Amino acid sequence: MTSQRLLTPIALGACRLSNRLIAAPMAGISDLPFRTILKSFGAGMTFSEMISTEAFVRGHEKTRGILKRAEGETPFGVQIFGGNPAAMAETARRLEAEGLCELIDINLGCPVKKVMRSGAGAALMREPERLFEVVRSVVGAVSLPVTVKLRACATPKDTAGLDLIPDLFSVGVRAVTVHARCVSWSFTHPPEWGWIEKAAALGRPLIGNGGVMSPEDAVKMAEQTGCDGVMIARGYLGRPWIFREIRQLIETGAWAPISLEERFATMRLHTRMSLETFGERQGILRMRKHLAWYVKGLPLNAEFRRGVNATHDPEQLFRAIDAYDDRLKRKERGEGLVER
After folding, report:
1. 110, 153, 182, 227: the active-site residue
2. Residue 2, pLDDT score
């Protein structure tokens, strides 16, 4: 696929995306405030944090909260995980009946031990019969499009994930996202995009995922693998404007670094939305990691990060952001500040 196609619409069943740049679901990260930011910078689709179907059918309040979306956040996908076909199907039915999303994604690739011990996520790749029972139960329960996300393989020596792809499409899955690492690899291990290329020959639409940390990476993945879309995860941490940068690179051949003014405006907006959505305590706790990502690579950030991690007061948090903004502007003017 040429990189230009990343900016064109794509239909996943009845769910239509305005472009093929997708913000991945990330536990503890892709909450309502951050998804709003990602959407504002041009993400073609956003996903909730993944939800446990067992918790959802029991009416777990926190799980319900994960499903809240912003006004105008469409298309919106919900990623579900679980090993119980009945609970998976019931969750899907309720999501559709309540109009909570336009698409349901089944997590078949999460390598987290807690998830795998429950028989969900990547554990299902070890039991293809049960995996397909889960997938068929969800597909058969709803008219919404159902997609899946999996890892390319369990270990570098097998092709477990890739082998599943033709049959996944045959049972009604509308798209497959392949993370280009095996289950046994950590996120620090370089991805193998060759697996995405192989997957694209086995069924489409095929979404590539893994190792997209820059606009150039997104373009290279599309052109090297022929995938139908690119899903970005860790590459958007502290850099939600990566979606705009990718568009700029494709349209003009170059992308413009975000200005200091817009970076800090985004930090303030994100912080306000987090406080409004989660309250003071949780809002500040959630923002600590985001603010550290926003300033990664900037000079003089150590003192700022220490201050953010020490505060429990919203006013102090905003003062810390303002003070760091002012400090960087003074440094730009050459006022001789000392690195700390």
Report:
1. 110
2. 82
Q: What is the pLDDT of residues 11-60, one digit of tens each?
A: 999 999 999 999 999 999 999 999 999 999 999 999 999 999 999 999 88
Is 110 noted as a catalytic residue in this protein?
Answer: yes
How far is residue 182's CA from residue 153's CA, in Å, rounded to a whole number? 5
Q: How many Cα atoms are found within 13 Å in the side-chain-facing hemisphere of 127?
A: 13
CA end-to-end distance (rounded Å), the chain:
46
What domains sit in the chain, N to C, each tagged with a CATH number?
Answer: 3-252 (3.20.20.70), 260-331 (1.10.1200)
Mind giving me the DSSP string for 225-283? H--SEEEESGGGTT-TTHHHHHHHHHHHS--PPPPHHHHHHHHHHHHHHHHHHHHHHHH
Question: What residues have CB less than 8 Å from 25, skipping those under 6 apart?
Answer: 47, 48, 49, 50, 77, 79, 105, 107, 149
pLDDT tens for 95-119 read 999 999 999 999 999 988 899 998 9
Residue 320 has pLDDT above 90, yes or no: yes
Among candidates 196, 148, 140, which has minimal Cα distance to 169?
148
As beta bridge partners, residue 207 has 177, 229
Residue 145 dihedral angles phi and psi, to the nearest 5°: -65, 140
Distance CA 306, CA 308 (A): 6
CA-CA distance, 63 to 125, in Å (whole number)? Answer: 25
